[in-house]
Amino acid sequence: MSGTSAGSAAAPCRFAHYFVICGIDTETGLEPDELAGENFEQSPLKRTFKSKVLARYPENVEWNPFDQDAVNMLCMPKGLSFRTQADQREPQFHSFIITKEDGSRTYGFVHTFYEEVTSPQICSAMQTLYQMHNAEQTNAASSSSSSSSSMDSLASSLDDGYSPTSSSSSSLSRAAGSYDSSRDTLYVSKALCLITPMPFMHACRRFLAQMHSAVIAATAPPLPLESYVYNILYEVPLPALGRSLKFHGIYESIVCQRPGPGELPLADFPLAEAFSLLGVENLVQVFTCTLLEMQILLYSQDYQRLMTVAEGITTLLFPFQWQHVYVPILPASLLHFLDAPVPYLMGLQSKEGTDRSKLELPQEANLCFVDIDNHSIELPEDFPQFPNKTEFIQELTEVLLSFGFSANTGAPPRTRSSPGSTSSTPGRERKSATLRQLEDDGRNGNLAGEELVVLELLQGNATLERLQALTKRTGVTVARVEALRAGVKGQPTDGGNQTGGEEEELRNAKLNVQLREVFASRFTTMFADYESFVIQSAPDLESWLTNREQMHNFDKASFLSDQPEPYLPFLSHFIETQMFATFIDNKIMSQWEEKEPMLHVFDTRIDKARLYNIRAPSLRSSCYQRCSILKESAQAIEQRLMKIDHTAIHPHLLDMKIGQGKYEQGFFPKLQTEVLNTGPSNNKWCHKATTAQRRKDRHRQQTEHLTLDNDLKEKYMQEARSLGKNLRQPKLSDLSPAVIAQTNWKFVEGLLKECRMKTKRMLVEKMGREAVELGHGEASITGLEENTLIASLCDLLERIWSHGLQVKQGKSALWSHLLHYQAREEMLAQQADSPAPRFLERRKSDSSIAMPSLRVSLIQDMRHIQSMSEIKTDVGRARAWIRLSLEKKLLSQHLKQLLSRQALTKKLYKRYAFLRCEEEKEQFLFHLLSLNAVDYFCFTSVFTTIMIPYRVVIIPIKKLSNAMTTSNPWVCVSGELGDSGIMQIPKNVLEMTFDSAFRPHTHISAIFKCQNLGKLTTVQLGHDNAGLLAKWLVDCVMVRNEITGHTYRFPCGRWLGKGVDDGSLERVLIGELVLPSGEDDSARACRTPPLQRSPSQGRHISITSLTGRDTKLNSAQIQEGIGEAVNNIIKHFHKPEKERGSLTVLLCGENSLVAALEQFFHHGFKSARLFQKTVFVWDFVEKAVAYMESADQVGDLQETTEAMKMTCQSLCHYFNAINSTSRNIGKDGKFQLLVCLGARDRLLPQWLPLLVECPVILQMYEDTAMLRDPSTLNTLISVLETLHDFSITLEASLVKGINL
What we know:
By secondary structure, this protein is an alpha+beta fold. It contains 44 helices and 27 strands.
């Protein structure tokens, strides 16, 4: 991704901004680098010493001010490195990136080599250090202590990554040996660095390598080194968009190219290397973590590998951009950055042979750890997979194979070691060698060691070069050399005048762009319709920026509902990220200002895809679409590299004093500052840019006159662009305590802001949903989205608890704190000799007369989680505990209690930690408290397989019935996830409680354990009718989940017993969730509406009781009730399957289909005479069926149609099956069953005309009855027929024992 620099005239033009030399300052001598984690037990040659910027040219560039500390730190992240003649002194190459606070990037490319130390003071200082070290070693031979603090151990594990040793024995001898100035030659590292605005990695690498070759060559270079440095700083321009450029190094020319405006942005780091280091699947997983903005830590001995993987991954994000902390090479002095409680992508240098298990990181709950050298990754838990991952990996593998790369084992073996990556164990060495990808030393990607040596010999030999040129002119080719150059053994080149390096570079560039196109194609497919969901609500930029935080810019719910099911787990997380929010912001701002370049390319691609697909449904299907433009994307690069568009001015002699910076082999000369600090005044491409800049300036001045508050707009713009970013890039340079404190303060502010935004979003979404259930507007949140929001809250809490930890214990900082609290409370409880921890509170439910109150205790909730064998990790336990606390509406209260132990918090956290900032902590707990206004079932719905204890209480109506019963009661509790099965309740569980007036109340109470039933829907209650006191009038049944505390009330208000009411011995009751009585009115006003209820006492018990009441409904009300009941069932089926809830409630609950049809059948029913027994609707059905059966036998039905006969038979068959069931469900229960089965099997509308045509109707119904009105009946039939489109499944508790 290209970093752009704003500012002065030549800013967009120059290829390189600075040439920098870093190394040892002979005047200040050896300075230990305390920040890098000094370890005095190591031998002086392995210690860290401060490096300095020795020279930089030019002194300063107006549009890109030189950051001396940052450049020095990143050129030599581990400071100076010393060697003797006995050590390997291979030159190393690495690159780095400096991200400024405004998000713009500058790239650095560094060539590090070893130069002999000529200063006698430094040699003698090293000798003195060695003598002191040896004396200490002999004194303390027995004690070898290791560092205890997590950060110290991290520092020591990072120490000395750049010292490859050939075997374990040599490293031992070095540790025991010493440096002797009379015997040994001392060498010290020196770095040559180019700082550029764009990542032309290959070109810079080759230029610097040639510079070094010139220094160590036996003969001086053709021109003084100043000429080449001046040339690249002032005379080599950036290639224009879509053009290639050739410029001249010391020994050979160098080519680079830049993509055109419609192509993917520049990316020069070799993706093939990243793929071979990690393997395709691992890289896709790390890429997914990056998209979901997790914390990503790269770990390798080799700085260039860190950079290659980091840049590779961020390059593949197109059209999105990483918005958080980005430090691909984290200097040893900046380890405190790992404490950052924000998403980051950082690279950490590992010490050779360091075991990953010894690496203590401040936070790991949401960390993706990438061990590059061992080709392994550790992923966070609960990690959604990238859509179509298998097909995606397959396509990437095919692209790699087409270029001769194995997808999982890397490039052909190389014998030359990459920086610092040799290992002391031969097995590991072999493994690394096999998996080591071609180093991006572009020239020789496929050469084995022997050929590499030959080619290097030829490359720098002028005589051989001239001989070769001569043979070429005479038509002879030196096949061996040509083959080496092309990187293909024994095959002649294809006649072009390209060198092997250029061939390799072309191959790399083509592979890079094809791999990137495969990634870009996935996003083009996934977000083909994204524009349709962007909400353009503001009239102008200013008002949009002003109200940015309050606005919804993207219709997430509609977007998700439009996506294929398999994509949802990933997409629901991804559209919550900052990078997606920024992408949408850029889209909205593009209507008022110039489109952001990456967005422009992406939109163009989507338009093109639409042309081909004509917005076909394939854009939305989950079928995998392969990338179709691989060839043409590679051709564009090939054409540019084959046909050079522009050649820069050749290096030339400068007007400078002769004799200064005299050539001395092996030593980099001191360059003449006055020549290199000022560029040419008459440079034509600089002049062009200046003219263009002037034009732009004039235009800007005009617009400033038109808009007076331009500064204000700019301020808004900056704020809008940084919205949601907790902390933009922290400064690498200033490491004073004040700056570190300020950085931490920004983290604290950022965390608080994030907490506010998250809780607000959760509330708004949830309340929006509840408004829908109450009948206002449309739903805006899905279960999937809710789960995503809760997962992101868990992540935020983990990051808050990880901030400022003293010592890390376990992967979850929150769970670790809870365990400390638990241990402390249990110890206090033992000392006080009380069985339970303090701070207990009892929560009453509305049914507190019958239900014993549930103890509210943080420790108790922890124990519930600890007893769940399904959860294996601390991170999982912490998330489960958060979900449970949220569901119980105790999250804020529990965390407040946890933090009330201030001594514990002080022991665990540093002073700057978020949890020790009192005011912010209070605000944070207040934001969490606001979540109590809504209901979550985030624990119940996620942990579906755990065993949960349920308490069942059966409450009789005492005034009219026996409180006791001699029969044996049983219950079966059903929920959305299953049922408990029939459970017999022992007779000896009768309990007595007293109400506020000290009146005694008896009820039956029992506890049973079964697998999580989810939200409870129905209870079947019955008894066996045994003994003298077998009749039982039940008020209600209460059931409570003993873990979450959710209590459900199942109203009954009916008799259970033979010869009373409708003679039922069992009933199916429908539940409603009971509000905890502690909740105030404001919380009640905005909470989830109650579920449907079972027929309560208030509903008719029989026709007699109904006719004697004033609650008769008129025909219009009854019709409205039927319409509403059917509507609710249709709405149920239109919801996503996972969010439908209970259908039983809609069929048999309070305002259900059964209840509405009962009202319909009761309308105009002839009232019972005095002293006659009660009549039920079932009695009418029974008589009608008896008539049909007798008519069929007599032969009266012969004239009817075949269809009518079939319907008649089906009604009789169903009636007999219900009547002959072994269950004692009573007459109302039987009618309910007939309606449910008729609705399920789509027979109900056919049965109604049959019942109406029976003569029985004349005896049992008035003339005005709705059942006898043909038009009303036809309306009812057409309404019921609308249910035929849906497949109704009945709960097992309803149809038990019915044999059809």
